[in-house]
Amino acid sequence: MTKQARWAGMPRLAVAGLLALLSGATQAAYKLNFQQPATELAQEVYDLHVWMMWVCVSIFVVVFGVMFYSVIKHRKSLGGAPATFHENTRVEILWTAIPFVILMVLAWPVTKTLLSMRDSSNADITIKVTGYQWKWGYDYLKGEGAGIKFMSVLSTPQDQLDNKAPKNDNYLLEVDNHLIVPVGKKVRILTTSNDVIHGWYVPSLAVQQDAIPGFIRDTWFRADREGSFTGQCAQLCGKGHGYMPIVVDVVSAEKYAAWVAGQKQQMAAGAEDPNKVWPLADLMKHGEAVYAKNCVACHQASGKGIPSVFPALDGSKIATGAKLEHIKTVLNGRPGTAMAAFGQQLSDTDIAAVITFERNSWSNKTGDAIQPSEIKTERH
């Protein structure tokens, strides 16, 4: 085959390769893409993503098409001579104006969508979302459901995480308490953090807002269909970053009203008597459950902790020393360490029970039964 014949087939090979590439990308789009939008803004984000992708593909095809055409049709073997564009005003204007026009065409719809994302006014429901290491706290501040508050924690047991024996494919996206909101209502989300920077991110709702200690930031969404939508912390917030999922359930107005009524009834029934004196056995049982949910990831079920990372509780000075120091540590945390403050996360009874459990488990046998009244006194 002559050199000219080999080069003559290049355009067809280039076209065939490009078609194969685009075909593969098209097939991949059916498997790998954004989550299905559940809000108008999420649909706008998805449409912008698809539109810009094809703009980029078009630019790619045009630029490389011209380049390959020039290489093939104006090669030296066909007598081609290099052209010069030095100080060519027309070319200078074109390669400046064309990118500028493209950027302006892209900037308008993007700016419009971003401005819509920032308009959290006239919300029907306002919910404060607080990030903790490593869980979320939800506090309904305004609208139907105001006064409801709860924590949301990964529901997969720690032993399954440690043994790498997940119960199903979604074991890192399951939580004990879902955030419940009504369909068609504007929900304003206020984010903050109790310790480090977290990120509240639910792709299907087009919501991604950092939760920063000492700051309140806001965003919003209005779901246009019912369903369960998942997300995760979008910041590298520490060891348990991968165990900090989000689940938002969007339900009908009737189901939401029933849920609110049930939560209010449950809160009234579960109101604590801070002066109640708990038997040691009851405190140990309740404390074990609180420990498994909040402490085991760092201090381990054995109480041995993780050497050089998280201290052991088994035989520690805190868990076997003065009660007051132990209470202060759990309530206020340890600044400069990974020990979080649980004063805002747990009730007086929960804290009293978990401290009692820690002081009477493993080799710790203090016999102390910490009462909720002691925690209440120390809070104030």
Structural notes for this entry:
The protein has helices spanning 3-8, 10-29, 40-73, 89-118, 158-162, 253-269, 280-294, 296-299, 317-320, 323-332, 348-359, 372-379; strands at residues 125-132, 135-142, 149-152, 179-182, 187-193, 198-202, 207-211, 217-221, 227-233, 245-251. Residues 1-23 have low confidence and may be disordered. A hairpin with a 6-residue loop joins strand 2 (135-142) and strand 3. The relative contact order is 0.09. It starts with a helix and ends with a helix. The chain is of the alpha+beta class. Helix content is 43%, strand content 16%.
H-E order:
HHHHEEEHEEEEEEEHHHHHHH
CATH superfamily of the largest domain: Cupredoxins -  blue copper proteins
Largest sheet: 5 strands, mixed
CATH topology of the largest domain: Immunoglobulin-like
What is the count of structural domains? 3
State the separation between the terminal residues, measured CA to CA.
92 Å
Spatial arrangement of strands, main beta sheet: 3-2-1-5-8
Task: Give start-end ranges of low-pLDDT stretches.
Answer: 1-23
